[in-house]
Amino acid sequence: MSMAGNLRKVRRLGTVGGLRKVAGLTRRRRRVDLSHPARSPLGSSVVNCVAYEDGMRVPVEGELADAVERVRKSGDGFVWLGLHEPTNDEFAGIAELFDLHPLAVEDTIEAHQRPKLERYGETLFAVFKTVCYVEHEELTATSEVVDTGEIMVFLGHDFAITVRHGRHGSLGPVREELESHPLQLAKGPSAVLHGIADYVVDEYLSVVDAVQADMDLVETDVFAEHGARVDPGRIYQLKRELLELKRAVVPLGRPLLELADRPIRVVDPEIQAYFRDVADHQLRAAEQIAAFDELLNSILQAHLAQVTVAQNEDMRKITAWAAIVAVPTMVCGVYGMNFEHMPELSWRYGYPLALGVISAACLVLYRGFRRNGWL
């Protein structure tokens, strides 16, 4: 769809009736996933476009440029534009309207970025990695445990642009939560940035708690009676998924500390204090992931040790039975050499005596091995 088509869709959203229609849809489906082809009420990559003044929604007439001009004239509001996986053509007009830096635009379109915080003049560009726990009946060597996505945020004095990638992480609940606290939203676009950061980090903690259940299950299986038979692929798969979670959570620590401690023009000082709480939660999630990683290493080492012990026990049993079988083999081998002059060849009780000696020797060996734990 062309940029002109997108802006016409935004114009329809800007009417009062359009806003009421989208608001009603959001109330009916609070956790709607907007990642499918019909992801947007506007029929394009634009998910929502709303103007706020003094923390309250205001009716917007005209195109997106008209909404931006209105809030800039009033000097006391901002526009929040939300998009999902826009193409280069769809985003080009928006980038020109808000004077977004080409490097940030390129990162937004291509995605697959690390969590980061960058400043381009008066615009702040932030990248968040979203995570989602993938439900599964049983953890196997191929189970997907963690799914990741991305949220890019452009922040200026009078606008907030959010671009989402992935099949989860809908910002509808964030928007509803912010609109229920107009005093917080009145502090400007930085309230949107804090709401998104808080939402993303809270999801980190939820996913970490869910992963811990898988960790407990694997640990219980490994240290069970037949733990040596546990498929090590399950442990490796959980470790791989934990690594993906770590790549999403850990790099976000530095950007959050910058938002909490360093003065930034587009971030309200009162909002800045709230980022400290978000940074604390992110640090907690990072520490739990590091602890999980160490625990998985210990579980894997314990499993390998169990396998080694089980193999040693099997070898001892095989060796013990081989020693027992060697006795009749030796006796029978001696008497099978067909020499003419051999002891007890003509004795009537020679055969029963040979069987008795073999049985007694085997019984003594069996009891000795059993007493020493070899059998």
From TrEMBL:
Quick one: where is this thing mainly located? membrane
Please give the start and end residues of each transmembrane region.
Answer: 318-337, 349-369
- Domain of life, source organism: Bacteria
Task: Kindly state which keywords UniProt assigns to this record, in alphabetical order.
Answer: Cell membrane, Membrane, Transmembrane, Transmembrane helix, Transport
| InterPro entries named in the record | CorA_cytoplasmic_dom, CorA_TM1_TM2, MgTranspt_CorA/ZnTranspt_ZntB
Q: How does it sit in the membrane?
A: Multi-pass membrane protein
Q: A Pfam family name for this chain?
A: CorA
Tell me where it resides: Cell membrane
The family assignment reads: Belongs to the CorA metal ion transporter (MIT) (TC 1.A.35) family.
Record's protein name: Magnesium and cobalt transport protein CorA
Source species:
Streptomyces broussonetiae
